[in-house]
Amino acid sequence: MQWILTHPIISGIVAALLFELATIILRFGFKMTSPTHTRPLSKVTKGYRIHHGYPGIPLLFAVPLLPADTIISSIVIISAIMLFLSDFIHHAIILPLFAGSHEFHLKYPAT
Question: In terms of Cα–Cα distance, which of 11, 95, 86 is closest to 51?
Answer without folding.
Answer: 86
